[in-house]
């Protein structure tokens, strides 16, 4: 069938097929894009009063897209649509742009007015670290699971100590191999965008990893992943996330206490101890200092909270 003869629904199906097989997006992402696309086409059909074809999508106006976003912002009880926050609206617009970009490239059906639509302003979210006591609690609680083997408890403690002590992302910590241990005084870490940095290793981190390796029941070659799962395969990010979820449940910590929160805590605790922003930027591997500056707001917020709690007239 010629592209010009496609219905809008068939065009959407072609885009999702492209995302699944050429872009290889995750199933959850595909589901979200499909939901946004179907809602967008349903709006156009209601707004224009008739089923849409591919050629109709090229005539979409900026006003129509803005009207759709306004409708999604308010939500609809009749259709079971929940009101969307600014960040979700921005993701909706991004998906619509991606859909029309596909139609332009693959189906020769541009929608020029889409360039006139601006997304909602999104207030940057601040990092949500855990306190020093909470971080210690997470590390100490790793041995409290009665169903875990002794070596698994040592592994979990080593992983969390590494994330907190070196400020690593989960993917960076799990990318270490057996050849990286015993840990040197500084690890060479390749982070986002292939950016390489040196992460100093505290004695406590080195000792935790050594204790885990002393108990590990599986032989490893130099190229094998350092951290192993119960059956001997490489440890996955999902395991670390699930493990921290269990720990925070036992400790009564908020949902924001995640493995990545330990990286945020690494930065904020260093800042609170007097480290300068430029050094923290290097340790975290941030390309821009503006990204690191978010931690100054977190530290100031903590200071104000402590002041309000301690001052006699707080």
Label the structural class.
mainly alpha
Low-confidence spans? none
Q: Would you count the extended β strands for me? A: 2
Averaging pLDDT over every residue, what do you get? 86
* Residue fraction in strands: under 5%
Please describe the biggest sheet, giving its number of strands, its sense, and whether it closes into a barrel.
Answer: 2 strands, antiparallel
Would you kindly provide a written description of the structure presented here, covering whatever features stand out?
By secondary structure, the chain is mainly alpha-helical. The chain has 14 helices and two strands, in the order H-H-H-H-H-H-H-H-E-E-H-H-H-H-H-H. The chain has helices spanning 8-21, 27-48, 54-57, 62-74, 86-107, 132-140, 150-166, 170-174, 203-215, 237-251, 259-272, 277-284, 289-292, 294-310, and strands at 186-190, 196-200. Strands 1-2 form a two-stranded antiparallel ribbon. The protein starts with 7 loop residues before the first helix and ends with a helix.
Quick summary of this structure?
The protein has 314 residues and is mainly alpha-helical. Helices cover 56% and strands 3% of the residues. The radius of gyration is 25 Å and the shape is elongated.
List descriptors.
314 residues; mainly alpha; two-stranded antiparallel ribbon
Question: What topology does this entry show?
Answer:
Elements: H1 8-21, H2 27-48, H3 54-57, H4 62-74, H5 86-107, H6 132-140, H7 150-166, H8 170-174, E1 186-190, E2 196-200, H9 203-215, H10 237-251, H11 259-272, H12 277-284, H13 289-292, H14 294-310
Antiparallel strand pairs: 1-2
Helix pairs in contact: 1-2, 2-5, 4-5, 6-7, 7-9, 7-11, 11-14
């Amino acid at each position: 069938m010629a592209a010009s003869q496609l219905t809008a629904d068939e065009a959407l199906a072609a885009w999702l097929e492209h995302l699944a097989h050429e872009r290889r997006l995750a199933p959850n992402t595909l589901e979200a894009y499909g939901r946004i696309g179907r809602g967008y086409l349903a709006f156009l059909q209601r707004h224009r009063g008739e089923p849409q074809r591919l050629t109709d999508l090229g005539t979409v106006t900026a006003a129509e897209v803005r009207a759709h976003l306004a409708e999604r912002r308010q939500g609809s009880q009749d259709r079971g649509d929940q009101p969307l926050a600014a960040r979700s609206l921005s993701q909706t617009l991004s998906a619509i742009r991606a859909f029309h970009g596909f139609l332009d490239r693959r189906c020769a059906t541009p929608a020029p007015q889409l360039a006139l639509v601006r997304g909602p302003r999104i207030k940057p979210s601040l990092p949500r670290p855990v306190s020093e006591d909470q971080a210690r609690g997470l590390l100490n609680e790793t041995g409290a699971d009665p169903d875990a083997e002794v070596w698994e408890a040592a592994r979990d403690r080593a992983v969390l100590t590494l994330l907190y002590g070196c400020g690593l992302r989960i993917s960076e910590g799990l990318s270490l191999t057996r050849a990286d241990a015993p840990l040197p005084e500084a690890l060479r870490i390749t982070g986002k965008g292939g950016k390489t940095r040196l992460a100093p290793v505290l004695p406590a981190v080195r000792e935790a990893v050594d204790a885990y390796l002393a108990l590990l029941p599986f032989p490893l070659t130099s190229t094998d992943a350092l951290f192993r799962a119960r059956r001997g395969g490489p440890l996955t990010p999902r395991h670390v996330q699930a493990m921290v979820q269990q720990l925070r449940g036992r400790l009564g910590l908020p949902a924001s206490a995640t493995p990545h929160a330990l990286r945020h805590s690494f930065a904020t605790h260093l800042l609170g101890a007097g480290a300068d922003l430029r050094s923290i930027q290097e340790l975290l591997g941030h390309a821009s200092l503006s990204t690191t500056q978010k931690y100054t707001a977190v530290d100031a917020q903590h200071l104000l909270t402590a002041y309000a709690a301690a001052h006699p007239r707080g």
